[in-house]
C-alpha cells in the first residue's frame, strides 16, 4: 500500500488551516463577512479535505471509499462542529455548518470515486489493447504474455521407430507368406522347385519305398 505524498501534504495543510479557522477563539480570527458565505467556505474546505484524503492511499476503490467516509465525512465533518460547541472559544454549535461540511465531503467522495472508476477502466482497456512486444506494455501471464512465442494449429503426432515397426508388421507378415510360396529347392526327380515342407514329404515317401 503506497502513500501519495503530495495528497498527504495537502490534506495535512488543509486540516491545520481549517482547525485554526474553525476552533480558534473568534476574537483572533477575523474573516471579512462581505462577499463571502460561511456555509460556502465550509463546503469548499471539506471538499478539498475529502478529495486530498481520498487519494492518499493507493489501494482498491472500496477501501478508499470506506476510509474517506469514516474519517472525513463522519469524524471531521460532524465531529469538528460538535467539538466547537464544547470549546470556550466564543463559537456556537451550528447544525447548518454540519450540513455544509457533510454535503461538501459527499460531493468530493462522489466525484473522486467516479473518476477513480473511469481511471481503472482506462488502465484495464489499455492493458488489453496493448500490442505484444510494444514498449511499455506489461506482460500478463494470465493472458499468455511473457512466456515465449506460441504456435497455433493441430500438432502432428510424433513418429517413432516403434510406431513405424508396428504399422509395418502386417506388411512384413504378407511378404513372408509370399516368400514361402515362391521360394523352394530343386527336387531330385526334376519336379522343379519345391518348398521345404514338400522336400520333407518326398524324402519320407522315398524311404518307405526302399523298405518295401
Shape, principal axes of CA atoms = rod-shaped
Please state how the strands of the largest beta sheet are arranged side by side.
1-2
Instruction: Give the tally of β-strands.
Output: 4
Give me the strand/helix succession: EHHEHHHHEEH
Give unreliable regions as ranges. Answer: 140-144, 185-190
Please give the radius of gyration in angstroms.
48 Å
Description of the molecule:
This protein has 212 residues and is mainly alpha-helical. The chain has seven helices and four strands. It has helices at 5-23, 38-54, 61-86, 95-129, 161-167, 169-182, 196-211; strands at 2-3, 57-58, 185-186, 193-194. The strands form two sheets. The chain has a two-stranded antiparallel ribbon. It has a two-stranded antiparallel sheet with strand order 3-4. Strand 3 and strand 4 (193-194) form a beta hairpin. The longest helix has 35 residues, at 95-129. It is rod-shaped. The termini are far apart.
Amino acid at each position: 500500500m503506497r502513500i501519495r505524498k503530495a495528497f498527504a501534504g495537502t490534506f495535512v495543510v488543509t486540516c491545520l488551516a481549517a482547525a485554526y479557522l474553525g476552533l480558534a477563539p473568534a476574537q483572533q480570527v477575523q474573516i471579512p463577512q462581505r462577499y463571502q458565505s460561511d456555509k460556502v467556505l465550509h463546503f469548499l474546505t471539506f471538499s478539498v479535505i475529502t478529495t486530498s484524503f481520498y487519494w492518499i492511499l493507493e489501494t482498491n476503490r472500496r477501501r478508499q471509499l470506506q476510509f474517506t467516509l469514516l474519517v472525513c465525512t463522519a469524524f471531521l465533518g460532524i465531529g469538528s462542529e460538535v467539538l466547537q460547541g464544547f470549546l470556550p472559544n466564543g463559537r456556537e454549535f451550528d447544525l447548518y455548518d454540519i450540513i455544509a461540511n457533510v454535503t461538501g465531503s459527499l460531493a468530493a467522495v462522489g466525484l473522486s470515486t467516479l473518476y477513480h472508476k473511469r481511471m481503472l477502466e482506462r488502465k484495464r482497456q489499455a492493458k488489453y489493447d496493448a500490442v505484444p512486444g510494444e514498449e511499455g506494455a506489461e506482460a500478463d501471464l494470465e493472458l499468455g504474455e511473457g512466456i515465449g512465442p506460441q504456435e497455433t494449429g493441430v500438432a502432428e503426432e510424433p513418429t517413432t521407430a516403434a510406431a513405424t515397426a508396428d504399422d509395418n508388421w502386417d506388411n512384413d507378415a504378407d511378404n513372408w507368406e509370399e516368400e514361402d510360396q515362391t521360394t523352394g529347392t530343386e527336387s531330385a526327380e526334376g519336379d522343379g522347385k519345391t518348398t521345404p515342407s514338400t522336400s520333407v514329404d518326398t524324402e519320407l515317401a522315398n524311404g518307405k519305398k526302399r523298405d518295401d
